[in-house]
Amino acid sequence: MLKSAINYDNRIFRSVANTPNGEVGGETLFHYRHNGDLVWGTYEGGGVTAGHLIANVAPDGALDMRYHHRSPTGALMTGICRSRLEILPDGRYRLHEDWQWTSGDESRGQSMIEEVKRA
């Protein structure tokens, strides 16, 4: 997969799977932006009041990410994530994520987000 063919800009993702120690759920929407080898974005919904992420993009489209958000209880949470890109047959992106909290209990988890199909 060529880096030049990968473009996260203006893509919207929804969580489709997460381990129990995660706070992101099916109501969480992620709005990604992309310029060069930098991706950034916002996310909210479900278990997240407001969140931000920033990531470096690897040549294969993988993301080396840092994130932070505010939970509904008011807790400020931070973490790191490595996301592996899969391009679905219909052209949408799916990200397979291995993450770890850098706040709270510092536990690890896995999640998956998929690009929202647009009409």
Structural write-up:
The protein has one domain (3-109): Beta Barrel (Lipocalin), CATH 2.40.128. Helix content is 0%, strand content 58%. The chain is built from no helices and eight strands. It has an eight-stranded antiparallel beta barrel. The protein is globular. The model has no long low-confidence stretch (mean pLDDT 94).
Oligomeric state of the chains? Answer: single chain
Cα-based radius of gyration, to the nearest Å = 13 Å
Query: What is CATH's topology name?
Result: Lipocalin
Classify the helix fraction into a percent range: under 10%
Percent strand equals: over 45%
List its traits:
Lipocalin, mainly beta, 119 residues, 8 strands, eight-stranded antiparallel beta barrel
What's the SSE blueprint?
Elements (H helix, E strand, L loop, with lengths): L11 E7 L10 E7 L2 E8 L2 E10 L5 E8 L5 E12 L5 E9 L6 E8 L4
Short characterization:
By secondary structure, the protein is mainly beta. The protein is built from no helices and eight strands. It has strands spanning 12-18, 29-35, 38-45, 48-57, 63-70, 76-87, 93-101, 108-115.
